[in-house]
Amino acid sequence: MNGDLVVQRPEGLYCPPGDFYIDPWRPVARAVITHAHSDHARHGNGHYLAAAPAEGVLRARLGDIALQTLPYGETLQHHGVTVSLHPAGHVLGSAQVRLEHGGQVWVASGDYKVAPDPTCTPFEPVRCDVFITESTFGLPIYRWCPDEEVFGDINAWWARNVDHGRASVLACYSFGKAQRVLAGVDPSIAPIVVHGAVKPLNEAYRAAGVSLPDTTMVTDVKDKADLRRCLVICPPSAAASPWMRRFGAAQTAFASGWMQVRGNRRRGGYDRGFVLSDHADWPGLHEAIAATGAQRVIVTHGSSPAMVRHLRERGLQAQAFETEYGDDVVEADLEAGGEVS
């Protein structure tokens, strides 16, 4: 529509009056970044703007970039557009982008979750006229259990494996999910070993003031008996690599929202699946959308057709943007190449 504050372009989501992009998937001169996952924060942009808490993880993933940071809730003016960043509750430093211009307020959510998480600032609803929402888990089958139940199951699984003298290998994405798992498990059960892809992100979290338990690298384990009782946090690619041999006959599990569908665990060859997501579930998506007060909603990656149809049935103006954002699977695919990012 004419006068829209965000439109689709081949490079990504573009703000015409501000002449900048939000999470572009092609290199551009100016990019506002919602968070540091690889499908939203890419190399090659001339200038990056992100929330202040994201600085460490962005630099860990993208290196020496021209990065400007903005504290949550503070505003800046760019070509007459008022820009502010607000907590998205997805991962450390994740932000929703609020744009105000010409009497309109738009919010681009990036990825978000509404459930509490000790490793990042909680989701903050932002009132707006138009809300651009993700829909990674935008189907009614996706409904998350409370974290305390999930971590109770993970701790019990780990403790049983310790009793049987076998390591517990928990595959999860190196940025965000790994740190959330570390913050939720009981470190008194046995030592915790992390993969090399996880370590620099842990350091960035700790530098940002997030409390995580002590961990070690496998090469630093002094007592080899610990390799038969430890909890191993690694990306999915490592769980299917020769790196695993040093842990012997380990039990394997995968922590992801995709584990809600049992067939995904079987296809991955995991012994267990724990349903733990850094995205909003079906009720959470609708809670977040309603809290904005927006009458127009634009849906991006995920189950866009189902979400658009449901929102229209509720009387909202709804449409979808075609984007190149992925979901948790994108992180797994990128890590399979051996990159931290």
Automatic annotation (TrEMBL):
Keywords of the record: Exonuclease, Hydrolase, Ligase, Nuclease
Entry EC number(s): 3.1.-.-
GO molecular function: exonuclease activity; ligase activity; RNA endonuclease activity
Signal peptide limits: none
Enzyme class: hydrolase
PANTHER family recorded: BLL1145 PROTEIN, CLEAVAGE AND POLYADENYLATION SPECIFICITY FACTOR FAMILY MEMBER
Protein name per Swiss-Prot or TrEMBL: Ligase-associated DNA damage response exonuclease
Native species: Ramlibacter monticola
